């Protein structure tokens, strides 16, 4: 039996290798077509989509037509270029409605927000990135406008590093080395050995801090949430603006809050 190699488990569960007998390549290609729009801010042509996905032009045209008929894509009648339709949001909101983690974590996120009056986020790790799945913004002026569903690199964000530090060394190193590491700001650390050294510090402290590495003017403190098996499933972070907060003051003030909030969420989910 030929199998596609699976990636290491991130949450303490056993990885499931992919059985090619059951794997439907057409579904994968349809999703590749949708993902072609992920980082785009303008409509795409058939040729651009075929090139970015690696799918042949004829097959790409069939996938585009099918997704348009199903209502997930729109096509401009004049330019013949494609854009996503609002219908694709149905999947994201269905996830937010049905994820038990988000529902159970919300009271603790809300309490942290009321206590600190600063922005509090819940994120999950997806391969080399973190995804924002719950967010309560501060009433104060915030330096970064992040929305639900937004992705950021794990290697340079506090919640990403908090979750990476909660993984076994070899898995964390594999993710860091495979990440597309760029200097998002002048403060961003991109060297793998320096990032891995920071993960050791985070393991000792129990929380992570990022000083303007993902965005200028943004200081973030985060702690990982663990499940009943001890696997990392999420991270809680509090984000504050610089210079209203210094890194030292933010760390002293919010590190206890994110650690306690993460522990409380973990206990609700059956964690130790």
Q: What does it look like?
A:
There is one protein chain. With 272 residues, this protein is of the alpha+beta class. The protein is 42% helix and 19% strand. The chain contains nine helices and ten strands. A hairpin with a 6-residue loop joins strand 8 and strand 9. Residues 1-10 have low confidence and may be disordered.
Please state the structural category: alpha+beta
> What is the overall pLDDT average?
89
Name the poorly predicted regions.
Answer: 1-10
Output the helix-strand order. Answer: EEHHHEEHHEEEHHHEEEH
- How many helices? 9
* Main sheet: strands, sense, barrel: 6 strands, antiparallel
**What is the end-to-end distance?**
39 Å
The strand count comes to 10
Binned strand content: 15-25%
Helix content: 40-55%
Work out the radius of gyration.
20 Å
Largest sheet strand order: 7-6-5-10-9-8
Rough shape? globular
């Amino acid at each position: 039996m030929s199998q596609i190699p699976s990636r290491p488990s991130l949450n303490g569960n056993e990885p499931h290798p992919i059985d090619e007998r059951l794997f439907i390549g057409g579904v994968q290609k349809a999703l590749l077509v949708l993902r072609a729009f992920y980082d785009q801010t303008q409509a795409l042509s058939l040729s651009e989509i075929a090139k970015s996905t690696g799918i042949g032009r004829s097959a790409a045209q069939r996938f585009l037509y099918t997704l348009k008929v199903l209502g997930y894509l729109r096509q401009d009648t004049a330019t013949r270029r494609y854009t996503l339709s609002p219908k694709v949001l149905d999947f994201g909101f269905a996830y937010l409605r049905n994820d038990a983690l988000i529902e159970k974590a919300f009271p603790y996120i809300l309490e942290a927000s009321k206590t600190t009056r600063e922005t509090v986020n819940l994120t999950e790790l997806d391969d080399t990135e973190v995804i924002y799945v719950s967010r309560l913004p501060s009433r104060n002026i915030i330096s970064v406008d992040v929305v639900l569903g937004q992705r950021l690199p794990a290697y340079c964000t506090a919640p990403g590093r908090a979750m990476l530090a909660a993984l076994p060394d070899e898995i964390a190193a594999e993710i860091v080395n495979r990440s597309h590491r760029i200097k998002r700001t002048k403060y961003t650390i991109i060297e793998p050995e320096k990032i891995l050294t920071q993960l050791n510090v985070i393991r000792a402290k129990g929380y992570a801090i990022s000083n303007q590495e993902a965005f200028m003017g943004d200081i973030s403190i985060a702690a990982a949430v663990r499940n009943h098996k001890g696997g990392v499933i999420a991270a809680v972070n509090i984000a504050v603006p610089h210079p209203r907060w210094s890194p030292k003051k933010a760390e002293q003030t919010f590190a206890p809050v994110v650690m306690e909030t993460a522990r409380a969420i973990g206990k609700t989910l059956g964690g130790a």
